[in-house]
Automatic annotation (TrEMBL):
This is Methyltransferase domain-containing protein. Keywords: Lipid metabolism, Methyltransferase, S-adenosyl-L-methionine, Transferase. Belongs to the CFA/CMAS family. Signal peptide: none annotated.
Amino acid sequence: MLDQAIEAKLRKLPVSVAITLPGGRRIGPEPAQVSLRIHEQHTLAQLAIGQVGAVGEAIVQGQADLDGSMRDVMAAVTGLLPQVPVQSHSAFWTRGWRLILSAMRHTRSRDAEQVQFHYDVGDEFYALWLDPRRVYSCAYFRTPEASLGQAQEDKLDLICRKLMLRPGERFLDIGAGWGGLLLWAAEHYGVDATGITLSHNQHQYVNQLIEQKGLTGRVRMQLCDYRDLGTDQPFDKIASVGMFEHVGRANMGTYFGHLYQLLQPGGLLLNHGITAGGLNNTQLGAGLGDFIDKFIFPGGELIHISSAIRSLCDAGLEMLDTENLRPHYARTLWDWSDSLESQLDAAKAVLVTQSGNENRAETILRAYRLYLSGCALAFEQRWVALHQILASRPDNDMNSGSMRGAQTVYPFQRDYMYAR
């Protein structure tokens, strides 16, 4: 019965898919754009009910093998899903339990462990498929033909312009990664810049760059949790890029509340992060969210943009501008995926060197191949989004700004964001 159900699904897919069953029988066309060899019956059952996340887990763990381009694989995934994976709705008591679990999962020590699990895989691995600056967040494509490297520089500059960075201002970059934004802001806008990370690899790498570039004293990278930053010397401008996804729903009030305290009155905050596509789902359905949590981003939680803005406003910050860069992230992720796919042997070699274990290296590589292409699909299909929220800490000075009585230093028009 399972064989027949799956055969019926295969005939409706937008790409040709063939499956080799645990007993060795093959179903589907020959040749096929995508081939899946399943070694265990229970994986076949997960495929039949559309639990593609569980099938992905089987592939990562070697219980199934996959051949074909990742773009064709993801085209097949859309036809195998039983429903759009953001259409799940939680009962009130379920959401209450999720808040409790969220709080338990996001202590300082667990957040550090979860970040290190992801980012300390090895700098050389990420360097293979990221741009030269190793910017690991959504790029900004000013033109369709822009390269990934140019689009990432344009994104860094867009953030700096939105924040209206000025020479000498104290700038904080929360979750500074490999230092792309931190160094761009210092070199192009003359700010006094502080970055923080929980990744030992990133901390060491960025401090080496700071020294090499002669920026010691004006730029610094610290290994610490955002909650441990003191508020006695607030910053003029703050950016948080690709970080609040790791905060947890239960800690959103703490997160934005502490950013409020870290910001000077009249200062600006740019929060750039992934948001949920549905109002009530905390992760993607069909097992996709479970896959990411287990193999890629343990502890990651997505909230809808409306919830993010509510938490921001509850903390006393004023939302000034919100922009959805969802299609830009789909393009970014496909660029990353295509880059990784073009050098799988090199990636495997790097991971073997880093881990010292060929099986471990193969597991990581399989997980990242599915993760990058799967996330590209999710952004294409509007299952998730990417929002930049620009906010300020109100200064309550009725004489500030270019127009008396405006009570804001924020410009009345947005032209300044996009004029080069």
